[in-house]
Amino acid sequence: MPSPPLISRACAVVLAACFVSLGGCVTGRPAVTSHDLAVRLDPKSNSLTALDTLTVSTGGQSSLAFALSENATVEKVAMRERDLPFTFGGGTLRVALPPGLPGESELPLTVSYRASFRDHVPEDPVNTEDPGYGVRATIGEKGTFLSDSVGWYPEIAGSRPVFRIRVEGPAGYEAVTAGRLVRRETSGGRTRSIWETGEPLEGLSLSAGPYRVREATAGETKLYTYFYPESDALSETYLAAAARYLSLYRELFGPYPFEKFAVVENFFP
Fold it and tell me: Where are the domains of the chain?
């Protein structure tokens, strides 16, 4: 059975829930166990603003250190509406915890921050073995890509949290990430989507852009295409092919283990 035609100028990236981990926190070491992220993308200014509500196992420590991009500006850190002292520099956010907390406490922390990401996307790239052409984080009108390694949200090294993320952008600017799509809507000139991961992940990447979103099902698995308008006519072909392949692989290997199967058009050249 022939494969559908490739999309010109772009590769199709499969965004399934990768890096599934069976582990949780390591006793005695601080770790983030969950993120509840609200992210607002501003493509015109190449920036985002975010509020991250984290559940953190303190490991009995008096302070916590989070990795966060040097491009970020941290505005506030709080615990149960109580502001906490912090320092931020060199890509490390250090938060002093109140005295008297019980050992191994799990605490809710909120971090308010903003950040700018504008890695250059080459117009006429030379041949390279890197399919991302060195782009690790960029926010723009053509598209957004934030890899899980750039520190676009605060994280403690070695954590394997679950995620809930709400992404907002201009109308028609659709976001996609790992996990299950809970809801997407456009109203008041804004497009919003909510995603949840059912399993702990080592990290979370995010893509967004002026996509046309199409969906189908294959058994109990949701299928999606996120294509630019000029490629939207190929969506049905890709969805049908994905359904066939998932059916074949279910027969060979058993149930598909992720919340969805999404094919996302790359805005890189």
Answer: 12-50+116-265
